[in-house]
Each structure stands twice: as structure tokens, then as C-alpha cells.
Amino acid sequence: MIKKADSLKSISEQLYDSYPNVFFDQNYLKFKTQGHDAHYMYLYSESLVIPIIIYKKYIFKYGVFQSEPYMYRETPDDYKTFLDEVIVYLKDTLRIDWINSTLASSLFHQHPTNSLCIPFGSNVVDLSNDEDVLFSNLHSKHRNVVRKAQRDEVFVKFGKKELLDDYTVIDKETWERSDRVEQGKDYYMGVLNALPDNSFISIAYLNGVPQCGSIIFYSKNMAYYMYGASANGAHNGAGCLLQWENMLYLKKLDVQKYSFVGYRFNVDDNSKLQNIQRFKERFGGEVDRGFMFKCIMRPRKRRLFEILCKIKGIKEFDAIDQEIHKWGDKPSVNNSEV
After folding, report:
1. Beta strand 48-57 pairing with 70-71
2. One fold for both 3-121+289-331 and 129-255?
3. Domain definitions of the chain by residue range
4. What tens digit of pLDDT does each residue of 47-68 get?
5. Domain range 3-121+289-331, CATH architecture
6. What was the pLDDT predicted at 191?
7. Rounded CA gap, 64 and 293, in Å?
8. What sign has the CA pseudo-torsion 167, 172, 175, 180?
9. 120 with 288: CB under 8 angstroms?
10. Would you put residue 60 in left (φ > 0), alpha (ψ -120 to 50) or beta?
């Protein structure tokens, strides 16, 4: 039986004291609802819990899961059954019209029965290894450019709001290269305020000029490479050095793992996405395999929403729409099939 709660404490004292990742944090969820007709909640069973934000726009009501489920108590509850029951609860009890695509920062090892899904994953580095082992696990090309960046006196600075001005400059350049609008300083300030003890900015500099940067979310269990940016004409090794220093910094914070967030299977060779994924792969992590999915409970209302978006010139197109044609009717994460 699925229930809803407004706080983790009302579900379990233990869960409140030690939630699995930053996306369960109530301050973060509150921040994500700001400026929207929206509210967050936790949906849970006897052993599993998942955070979701419910949005309302005109006559439409839809949800976005903020994390994969977490098992907070050992019971026979089944992961997939839980997801199926959550979807029924959202449709019948909360009258949700659809669930948007799951986020790149989430990794679901199962998907609801009635969902559109694609195989999806993340490169995750085990930070419990010694520094020498971590460095030897880097691809040889990454090791070489890290050393070159160090020789060229590229250095990495860690901080919070005091680095935001420098970060937003290169962030703007990054988005402009893709003809897209950046999130903006106010958004990133809100993120840092929501997670004051679980986020930081890192920036690589050459001769005092920002070359590239990242915004990292973390808890003891896992850190996430959430946002990244680079200057036009950035030093060739600055990005590798930045990620290497991120790993060492997180290791000092006793974080167990570092996720490079988001990995698609069967991407087109020599595409921009393939180059980004190759960059992530070469830091020595392993691909944690799962699914990205979305659920359309009321197809007619979803089609009406898409028509209205098209009229207003708003593109409603996600990774699932882009990739699902590659997988047919039965996406899988088995090694033989991806």
C-alpha cells in the first residue's frame, strides 16, 4: 500500500537522520518548487520511498521523480512492484496526468510495467581506492593531459558563492555554444543556498582566468557532477585536471563514490554526445546500468499539452524520445543487449 508524506521524519526517524542522497533533502525539494505551482512529497511503502515533485499547469498535472527509490527497511517488497503501485497511486488517487522523463542524476534499476523507457546509466568512480590506484585507473590520455595541465600551472580552486561570478561567466559561454540559454546566477545561488553543506563549486584557472568549472552535489554515499562549464578556447587539460582534483577533494570529504551523471547506450559514433561520454569513461569508473522512463497516464491530455507547447514554440522532446527507436519494444540493460 502506497502512502504519502511531507517529511522523511514522519516515515522513519532513521531515514530522517541518514537519507541516501541529496535529492531527498527537503530544502533542496523546496527550492525546486519555487516559482512554480508545485509541491513535493515522499511516496512510500513498508520498505521503499521515493521523492517526487507534482506540478500543475493550467488543466494539466504531472510529476517528476527526484531520485530513484531507496530501501529504508528490509522487507519482501519488490522494487518493480513498488514502482507499479506508485504509478497507480499517482493516477487514481492524486489524479496525475503523466510522469515526465526521469532525471539523468537518477538511476532506476527497474521501470514501471506501463512506461516508455530506454537503457540508461552513469559512470561511477569508487573513491575508496588509494590515490595511486585512482590515478592508475585513469585512461593514459587523461593521465597525460592532467600532468600537462599541472606543468602549465593550471590550478583548481574550491569554494561556494564566492566562485559563482567566475562560474557563471564560463557557464554562459558554454550554453551559447549550443544556442541555448543558461540557468543563470540566481538559479545556482538558490542551489547553493538549498544545499549549503552538500554542494560546492570547483574552477580550474590558468593565469587567473577561469578555464572550466563544475558544481557538485554530495553526501557521504555519492557525489554528483551536476553542472559543468568551460570557457571558449579553454586549456586542453583543464577539464581533466578539474575532475581529477574533484575526485581527490571528495575523497578527503570521505565521500564513497563519484557519479559523472548520465550515460546513454548505443550513441552515434563521433557525435558530440559520444565524445562527452568518452571523456567520462576515461576516469576509471564503472557504468552502473539501469533505465530512464516516463509514464503517460492520460494520453489525450498529454497530446493536448504537446499541441499547446507546439503552438507556443516550446519544444517538448527528451532523451527517451531521441533514443527509444533504437530499442524496439523491450529495452534491456543486459550486457548482451546493450
Report:
1. antiparallel
2. yes
3. 3-121+289-331, 129-255
4. 899 999 999 999 999 999 999 9
5. 3-Layer(aba) Sandwich (3.40)
6. 94
7. 11
8. positive
9. no
10. beta
**Predicted confidence band at 181 (pLDDT cuts at 50, 70, 90)?**
confident
Percentage of the chain lying above the pLDDT 70 cut: 95
Q: Tell me, what amino acid is at 137?
A: N
- Fold observed for domain 129-255: Aminopeptidase (3.40.630)
Provide the β-strand partners of residue 42: 5, 51
Q: How far apart are CA 90 and CA 43, in angstroms?
A: 9
Residue 267 phi, psi (nearest 5): -75, 160
What is the pTM for the complete model shown?
Answer: 0.91
Give the burial string for 51-63 (b: 16+ CB within 10 Å, else e). Answer: bbbbbeeeebbbb
Please tell me the distance from the alpha carbon of residue 260 to that of residue 282, in angstroms, as a whole number: 11
How far apart are the C-alpha atoms of 229 and 214, rounded to whole Å?
Answer: 6
